[in-house]
């Protein structure tokens, strides 16, 4: 998930930027020539590209990748427009579609691409991707952008929640790292972790704005719950989701966990023993944390639960053939084996190609960076998110606000989930009607 | 020409009848006052219709529709008062109304009170008064977004300036921006800080316009400093106070930038005001312009009520005479 600019990340920015520039320089050294589509005949074709990585390690890596694309071929020029985050890209695209000012390529997150699919704003990529070895993409991630008979985006900056912990603090507390295996054992050890480490809290949870409903999606599954089923039936009032809500509420209410606006930043500045963050935050945490940190699979409970997330690249509908092919050339370049490896190593996002995961460079990198290896090894255990969060317009925010009510307002989970269900159900019905009209 | 009786007479104009007969159609038109009136008024009227009344009408129209800019059908569905029913039955909206009221009362009253106090200080013949005035006024000129970022640092419960100051008194810093009960007070503090310089400068101008004679007369009548303030300063400042009251209320209703940067209306809607709710519904979450428009109408009505109350108050309490 994209990293927000915030007060402390700005302070840490100088160090991060230096490291990022160094990384970009290293990445820039490796690029191969690339064949532009034959349909481009009359000079360079400029394509606009709206993305969500304005700065930091991810921003530097994105800029370096575009530069490598330009070096690899002379016919296509990418005009990037970095926006603050995924939401900003989507908001600008909504208004841009009304005024005719939309890009050729847009970075659309897990919770946004489906809305543009429903509105018919996206180009089906099935044919365009055919020449770029689609079978090599990690299929679990690749198929998440399939709907109906089409493919509406190509996985690019894909991530999963990952469990980060302050290894120095855990060592100082004398508590075994094994307590992070389950939520119950972690909760039980939390007072000792705080007392022994001297840190303010054992765990950080995020708000709606910081993707709280995304990071807590896996734990909801782990407690046997769901946000919804694939048919858009909202299941929040069932036992598993309520139990998870109550468990997390008590965790915070007891003073052993904190619900904050920016859990990633607070973890990186040494406030907490542990936090759930995106794999895409690996690069930032590596650059900014002043302590040794480790990553682990998300804790289990009744079962293991972890969802996928992040973003893909989509081509807007209505482009002529040459622009479509040029746009796909850029997307294919960005997700080819070499670039996937470089991108993943610089940012922490999941490698989206099997060949990239298996490459010697990636394996050597994972050997040197066990935190990144954890993320890659957790990937096969993850699954796509419930429809309530990603397919209902605003569902992520509605669920996130629900989590805020539970964690920040200390309201009973059953009561909050009943209200959230009442809010989500009419929205789900509207989506079902639209889907019925589109897909039959 | 003035007559001996003091009334005005119209002098006969030689050849007037002849010229009237020879007037071109343009002159005829120009001679009609209503045409001149229309010529002057039309451009403004067009702009008003285009940029004020048409959007207002569109907002009313949207408020009774289920709207979605990305609706695949491209059409909006008429839903009657469903958007209003939704927002008024929604627990969040009640919280938003409460936040708006608290924000309004606290920021307007604190801004005006602190502005008045500072203006009274600056009205003394003190050394460096001009420099202090400039410093006090400076935050008014700063961008709200920049102010929001800086104050977010100041409010940081661990490393922020405010935490350090509170620490001198062994008071732990609240988690200003992470707790719903503290986020709105934090926003209010920042808004008051940003706007009190403006209030102080306006009050100062008002103070300096009060004739010294009134104070002298009050002194002769035996009025002490408090009575002079109560019976001379405050009444004489009433037009200024009224102006500030109106502008502060309007500014508070429209407050957006600092909320967006510092809290994004959160956590748990703790600092979401009505105007921010309008934004969230329209652009932030579900791109639901129907609900956003319904909330905007509630905002419009609230501002209308406040304005009417203000006008009534003006008639009774504000003194424009010396």
Descriptors for this entry?
heterodimer, A: 440 residues, alpha/beta, D-Maltodextrin-Binding Protein, domain 2, 5-stranded mixed β-sheet, 22 helices, disordered N terminus, B: 322 residues, mainly alpha, MetI-like fold, 2 domains, two-stranded antiparallel sheet, 15 helices, flat
CATH architecture of the largest domain in chain A: 3-Layer(aba) Sandwich
- Quaternary state reads heterodimer
Number of strands of chain A: 12
Helix content of chain B: over 70%
The CATH superfamily of the largest domain in chain B appears as MetI-like
**Largest sheet, strands/sense/barrel of chain A:** 5 strands, mixed
Q: How much of the polypeptide of chain B forms β-strand, as a percent range?
A: under 5%
What is the overall silhouette of chain B?
A: flat
Report on the architecture of this protein.
The complex is a heterodimer of chains A (440) and B (322). Chain A is 50% helix and 14% strand. Chain A is α/β, with parallel strands linked by helices. Chain A folds into two domains: 43-159 and 309-381, Periplasmic binding protein-like II (D-Maltodextrin-Binding Protein, domain 2, 3-Layer(aba) Sandwich); 161-307 and 387-439, D-Maltodextrin-Binding Protein, domain 2. Chain A has a five-stranded mixed beta sheet. In chain A, helix 21 (395-407) runs antiparallel to helix 22 (413-439). Helices cover 71% and strands 1% of the residues of chain B. Residues 1-10 of chain B have low confidence and may be disordered. Chain B has a two-stranded antiparallel ribbon. The longest helix of chain B has 32 residues, at 91-122. Chain B has 15 helices and two strands. By secondary structure, chain B is mainly alpha-helical. In chain B, helix 5 (91-122) packs parallel to helix 9 (180-208), helix 6 crosses helix 9 and helix 9 (180-208) runs antiparallel to helix 12. Chain B has two domains: 16-63, no CATH class; 82-317, MetI-like fold (Orthogonal Bundle), CATH 1.10.3720.10. Classes of the chains: A alpha/beta (440), B mainly alpha (322). At the A-B interface, helix 1, helix 4, helix 5, strand 9 and helix 21 of A face helix 7 of B.
């Amino acid at each position: 998930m994209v990293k927000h600019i915030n007060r402390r990340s700005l302070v840490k920015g100088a160090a991060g930027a230096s490291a990022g520039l160094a990384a970009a320089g290293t990445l820039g050294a490796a690029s191969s020539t690339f064949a532009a589509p034959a349909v481009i005949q009359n000079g360079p074709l400029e394509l606009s590209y709206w993305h969500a990585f304005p700065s930091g390690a991810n921003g530097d890596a994105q800029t370096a990748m575009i530069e490598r694309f330009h070096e690899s071929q002379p016919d296509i020029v990418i005009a990037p427009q970095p926006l603050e985050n995924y939401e900003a890209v989507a908001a600008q695209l909504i208004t841009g579609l009304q005024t005719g000012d939309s890009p050729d390529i847009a970075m659309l997150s897990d919770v946004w691409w489906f809305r543009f699919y429903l509105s018919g704003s996206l180009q089906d990529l099935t044919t365009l991707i055919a020449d770029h070895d689609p079978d090599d993409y990690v299929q679990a991630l690749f198929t998440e952008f399939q709907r109906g008979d089409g493919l509406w985006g190509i996985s690019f900056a894909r991530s999963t929640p990952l469990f980060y912990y302050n290894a120095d603090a855990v060592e100082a507390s004398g508590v075994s790292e094994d307590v992070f295996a389950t939520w119950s054992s972690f909760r039980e050890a939390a007072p000792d972790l705080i007392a022994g480490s001297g840190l303010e809290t054992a765990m950080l949870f995020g708000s709606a704005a910081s993707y709280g409903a995304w990071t807590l999606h896996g734990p909801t599954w782990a407690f046997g719950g769901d946000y919804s089923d694939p048919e858009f039936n909202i299941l929040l009032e069932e036992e598993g989701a309520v139990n998870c809500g109550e468990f997390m509420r008590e965790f915070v209410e007891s003073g052993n966990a904190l619900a904050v606006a920016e859990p990633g930043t607070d973890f990186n500045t040494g406030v907490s023993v542990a936090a759930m963050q995106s794999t895409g935050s690996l690069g930032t945490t590596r650059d900014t944390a002043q302590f040794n940190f480790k990553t682990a699979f998300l804790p289990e409970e009744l079962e293991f639960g972890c969802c996928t997330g992040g973003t893909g690249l989509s081509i807007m509908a209505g482009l002529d053939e040459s622009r479509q092919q040029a746009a796909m050339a850029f997307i294919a370049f960005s997700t080819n084996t070499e670039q996937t490896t470089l991108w993943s190593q610089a940012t922490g996002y999941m490698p989206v190609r099997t060949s990239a995961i298996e490459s010697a460079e990636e394996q050597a990198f994972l050997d040197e960076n066990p935190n990144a290896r954890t993320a890659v090894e957790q990937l096969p255990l993850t699954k796509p998110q419930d429809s309530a969060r990603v397919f209902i317009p605003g569902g992520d925010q509605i669920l996130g606000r629900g989590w805020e009510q539970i964690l920040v307002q200390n309201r009973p989970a059953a009561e909050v989930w009943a209200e959230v269900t009442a809010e989500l159900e009419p929205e789900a019905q509207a989506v079902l009607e639209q889907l019925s009209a589109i897909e039959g | 020409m003035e007559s001996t009786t003091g009334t005005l007479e119209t002098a006969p104009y030689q050849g007037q009848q002849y010229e009237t007969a020879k007037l071109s159609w343009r002159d005829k038109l120009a001679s009609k006052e209503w045409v001149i009136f229309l010529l002057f008024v039309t451009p403004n009227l067009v702009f008003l219709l285009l940029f004020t009344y048409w959007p207002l009408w569109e907002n009313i129209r949207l408020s009774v529709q289920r709207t979605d800019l990305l609706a695949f059908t491209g059409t909006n569905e008429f839903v009657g008062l469903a958007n209003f029913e939704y927002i008024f039955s929604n627990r969040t909206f009640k919280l938003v109304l409460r936040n708006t009221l608290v924000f309004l009362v606290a920021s307007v009253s604190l801004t005006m009170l602190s502005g008045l106090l500072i203006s009274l200080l600056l009205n003394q013949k003190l050394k460096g008064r001009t420099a202090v005035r400039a410093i006090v006024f400076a935050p008014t000129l700063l961008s709200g977004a920049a102010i929001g970022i800086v104050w977010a640092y100041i409010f940081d419960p661990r490393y922020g300036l405010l935490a350090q100051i509170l620490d001198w008194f062994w008071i732990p810093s609240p988690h200003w921006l992470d707790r719903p009960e503290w986020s709105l007070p934090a926003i209010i503090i920042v808004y008051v800080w940003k706007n009190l310089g403006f209030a102080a400068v306006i009050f100062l101008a008002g103070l300096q316009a009060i004739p010294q004679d009134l104070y002298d007369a009050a002194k002769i009548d035996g009025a002490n400093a408090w009575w002079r303030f109560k019976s001379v300063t405050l009444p004489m400042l009433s037009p200024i106070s009224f102006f500030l009251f109106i502008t502060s209320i309007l500014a508070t209703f429209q407050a957006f930038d600092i909320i967006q940067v510092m809290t994004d209306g959160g956590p748990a809607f703790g600092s979401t005001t009505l105007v921010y709710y309008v934004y969230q519904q329209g652009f932030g979450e579900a791109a639901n312009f129907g609900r956003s428009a319904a909330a905007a109408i509630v905002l419009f009505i609230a501002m209308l009520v406040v304005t009417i109350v203000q006008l009534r108050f003006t008639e009774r309490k504000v003194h424009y005479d010396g």
